[in-house]
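Hey, resending since the last one bounced:
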Amino acid sequence: MIEATAQDVHLTGTFNGVLMFAAADVYASEEALENIFPYLRENARVVAFGAKLSRHRVGRILNPVLKMLFKLTFSTTPKPDYEPWRMVAKRVEKLDIEEYFLGLMFLASGCVAMGKGHTNE
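The structure tokens again:
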């Protein structure tokens, strides 16, 4: 069993994918992604799911509630964003974004971009 933050974890081997479920500390952290992505094989599947600020007409009403909820989380959790998948998008080809619940939740998925995956040979 591995117990470490994504920023500090020492991985070995290569992986076919990564799932970041409600893990803003990971998908919105350049340091965490720089530590994890070298262990992903080329074309590894990358999926991130979490909360986001909404641009939807009705969803915007709930943005203040989401911001308040984020204040109750860990100090390392980044503030909610309209596009929290931005850092992942730099490393993934054709990142597909789906929004749910009036734009307050997202599902981002794609594959590791060529040259952005495994480098720890």
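The longest strand covers residues 40-51.

Sorry for the duplicate.
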